[in-house]
Amino acid sequence: QVQLVESGGGLVQSGGSLRLSCATSGIIFSMFDMGWYRRAPGNKRELVATITRDGSTNYAASVKGRFTISRDNNKNTVYLQMNSLKPEDAALYYCNADRKWLTGEDYWGQGTQVTVSS
């Protein structure tokens, strides 16, 4: 059974930092591209950052320079370090494991809430 479990969300003041984690099980983690997405109330889900199997990263323009995605293939975990948080970063953050390129597999976690007070 595939599981993606996010953690690390919470309430932080504007300018603060949080580190999100997504622990996975039931997949060959090293063979998946991983990503973080977010959805704020009333908005569509949007890409935050992705990291490929070989470690290449991509960021939304709104978070570039403030957020860092990383992965630990030994721990089957992907991270999102979020610095200089802004109220507009508040959202439900989801972890994604993507192997559509090979098998069509695409998995999502339940999300972790990030709230940023101004």
Would you kindly provide a brief summary of this structure?
This protein has 118 residues and is mainly beta.
* Unreliable spans: none
Query: Helices and strands, in N-to-C order?
Result: EEEEEEEEEEE
Beta-strand portion reads over 45%
Rg, alpha carbons? 14 Å
The general outline is globular
Mean pLDDT: 97
Beta strand count: 11
Number of helices: 0
Distance between the termini: 40 Å
Helix content: under 10%
Largest pleated sheet: 7 strands, mixed
Class from helix and strand fractions: mainly beta
Task: Set down the secondary structure blueprint.
Blueprint: E1 3-7, E2 10-13, E3 18-25, E4 33-39, E5 46-51, E6 57-59, E7 67-72, E8 77-82, E9 91-99, E10 105-108, E11 112-117
Parallel strand pairs: 2-11
Antiparallel strand pairs: 1-3, 3-8, 4-5, 4-9, 5-6, 7-8, 9-10, 9-11
Write up this protein:
- With 118 residues, the chain is mainly β.
- The protein contains no helices and eleven strands.
- The strands form two sheets. Strands 2, 4, 5, 6, 9, 10 and 11 form a seven-stranded mixed sheet that branches. A four-stranded antiparallel sheet has the order 1-3-8-7, with no helix packed on it.
- It starts with a strand and ends with a strand.
- The model has no long low-confidence stretch (mean pLDDT 97).
Question: Top keywords for this entry?
Answer:
118 residues, mainly beta, four-stranded antiparallel β-sheet, 0% helix, globular
